[in-house]
Automatic annotation (TrEMBL):
It comes from Sesamum latifolium. This is RNase H type-1 domain-containing protein.
Length: 133
């Protein structure tokens, strides 16, 4: 509604004299009838009705859209941050759980590996990397 008001104000500057009133939808019966016209077309096949339609919008608006495909956070991000620089969550329970979980992992050449007793280090993958393998 604001954009139409701005458009109308720009057009009114071209006239010498003008007045502006807002008519509520309840009081504007003709607008209501026009709004209901497309849904009632099937019932009025025998009558002849003439109506005008706009070829283009009264307000030209360009919208900039940026498409992004955000990657969901990986399950290993918190562990990697903790092992590299000691970053911990703010919640004390989460800190303790992270320390216990991180004790089973090691960083080698900026890659996360899981330690095992009787098995070699297992490289940790993201979901995308796991689907590729």
């Amino acid at each position: 509604m604001v954009k139409y008001l701005l458009k109308m104000k720009n057009l009114l500057e071209k006239f010498k004299e003008s007045s502006l009133i807002q008519v509520s939808r309840i009081d504007n019966v003709k607008a209501d009838q026009l709004a209901k016209l497309p849904s009632s077309m099937a019932a009025i096949q025998s009558r002849r009705i003439t109506f005008l339609s706009l070829d283009k919008a009264a307000i030209e608006e360009q919208i900039e859209v940026m498409w992004t495909n955000p990657t969901p956070p990986s399950w290993k991000e918190d562990i990697v941050k903790f092992l590299i620089d000691g970053t911990t969550p703010k919640n004390k329970k989460e800190v303790r759980a992270l320390r216990v979980k991180a004790s089973h992992f090691v960083m080698i050449d900026r890659e996360l590996y899981k330690c095992g007793f009787s098995q070699p280090f297992l490289k940790c993958l993201t979901s995308k990397e796991g689907n590729y393998v």
